[in-house]
Amino acid sequence: MNDSPADANSNAYRGRFAPSPTGPLHAGSLVAALASFLDARHHNGQWQLRIDDIDPPRAVAGSIDAITETLTAHGLIWDGPILYQSHSSPLYDSALDRLTSSGWLFRCLCTRATLDSNGCCGQRCRDHNIRPETPHSLRIRIAPERLEGFRDRSMGEQPAPTETALKDFIVKRRDGLYAYQLAAAIDDAKPNFTHIVRGADLLESTHRQRWLQQLLALEPPSYAHVAVLADEAGNKLSKQNGAPPLDNHQPEQNLRQCLQHLAQPAPPSSASRVPEMLDYATEHWSMRR
Ligand SMILES: [Zn+2]
To answer: What are phi and psi of 8, to 5 degrees?
Structure first.
C-alpha cells in the first residue's frame, strides 16, 4: 500500500476504519469506527483512516472533512497520513492482470435487463468470446471445492460459503470503476492490515474478499464482524435510509451509546469526558460474541 506505518514489525497489529466519502458519519458508522479503534488500541496497535473513494459518482463533496471532524470530536485520532483507495489503482490493475492471465476472469455483457434474480450474469457470458472493446464488466470465477471458511473473532467459526452465495461477482464494473470487493481484498490484506473490525453486514463480502486474496496469494487479515446498529424497524442504519449525522457537540453521549451497543462496560462517572472514556473503554475492551 502507499504509506507504511512507522512500525516495521510485520506482526504488529494494524487496524483501520475505512469509510466511503458518501456523506457524514452516523451512529452506525461510529460503532464500526469505535470498535476498530478500541480493538487496535487495546492491542497497542496502529489505527489508520482509509477513505474508500473508488466510486466518484457516489462521492458527496465535503464528506472527508465531515468524517475527520466527527472522528476528531469523538477522540478517535488515527495514526499517520490518511490513506486513499483512489491512490491504489496501479495495484488493482496489476491484480486484474494477474487474474486475467491465470484465467479467473471473464467478460460479462449483462446489463440490469439480463442479470439473473441474484444480480449475477444471466446469459452465461463466461462461455462466449466477448471482445475487449465491447463494453463489459469483469467477473471472477468461483471454484467451490477451494472455498474456505474462517474463524471470525466476534462471530465465531464461519463455514465455507456455497458457490451460489458468491457466484461470479464483479471485480471491475462496466463503467470502468474497480469494484469494492477487489479494492477491499487488496487493501485489507496483510501486511497493510492485520486486523479488520467492521460491521456484520459485511460478512458475506468477507467471503468474496477472502476468495480474491486466495487467488492473488495475499495473506488474509484476521476479521471481526460486530453487530450493526439498527433503527426501530430493525433496518441497518445507513446513509441510504436516512440515518441522521452524528451531533459532534455531544460526543460523550454518542460514545456511551456505542459502547452500550458493543456490550462494553459503561465508563464510571470519573471518566465522563472523551479522553477518559476512551482510556477506560480501551483498557476494558473485549470482543463480544
Ligand atoms: Zn453476463
So the answer is: -85, -5
Q: Which grid coordinates belong to 62?
A: 465535503
CATH of 14-284, one of 3.40.50.620, 3.40.190.10, 3.30.450.40, 3.40.50.300: 3.40.50.620
CA–centroid distance, residue 208 to ligand 1 (Å)? 18
Q: Where are the domains of the chain?
A: 14-284
Cα 235 from chain centroid?
Answer: 19
| pTM of this structure | 0.92
Distance from the alpha carbon of residue 171 to the mean position of ligand 1, in angstroms = 13
Q: How far is the CA of 244 from the centre of ligand 1 (A)?
A: 38
Ligand 1 center–CA 106 separation, angstroms: 9
Q: What is the pLDDT of residues 29-71, one digit of tens each?
A: 999 999 999 999 999 999 999 999 999 999 999 999 999 999 9
Any residues with CB less than 8 A from the CB of 2 and at least 6 apart, and which? 83, 84, 87, 88
